Amino acid sequence: MSSSSRVHHFKLVLLGDTAVGKSCLVVRFVRDEFFEFQEPTIGAAFLTQTVQLDDSTVKFEIWDTAGQERYRSLAPMYYRGAAAAIVVYDITNPDSFTGAKSWVKELQRRGDPNVVIALAGNKADLDSRRKVEFEEANAYAEENGILHLETSAKNANNVKSLFVEIAGKLPKNPPQQEREAFPLMPAQQESRSCC
């Protein structure tokens, strides 16, 4: 099977404070829709979407987590085993950027050591109300070796690019040889001569 016809599955989680636009980003990416008044996520929502790269297809299994503080303790359950994480902040809310930094730190400390992290400065359509400068967030991203893009779920700016850039950074190893359904344990592999 050629690599272009192979589909690579990756778990991706969205993290960030409440009302930064995590669900809006996902809905824009998956369904190309935007709702001005998105209901807050309770617990987490699950969606899937594929991205076509030059040499392969990536299927994201997306967990959109709730941003409310009362759900924060559930987050490790969602980011455990995630190959990628998008940490979202609102460019008009400096507290959300502080919160994003805390999520990045938590992922670096407790997430998968190879997790691809992207920092998304959402609500870029509200540039006139900007409180978090692009340069400040970009410098932070560079210091931490993570991706950084400013997005707007409202006008779809950089939303697909965000997921495509993440997809490009994920490892696309060839599938491993299929193993026997019930591999023999070393003790079982020894000769079984009787007496």
From TrEMBL:
InterPro entries in alphabetical order: P-loop_NTPase, Small_GTP-bd, Small_GTPase
Keywords assigned by UniProt, alphabetized: Nucleotide-binding
Start and end residues of each stretch annotated as Disordered: 174-195
SMART domains on file: RAB, RAN, RAS, RHO
Pfam families: Ras
Gene Ontology molecular function terms on file: GTP binding; GTPase activity
UniProt cross-references to CDD domains, sorted A to Z: Rab5_related
Protein's recorded name: Ras-related protein Rab
Source organism (scientific name): Seminavis robusta
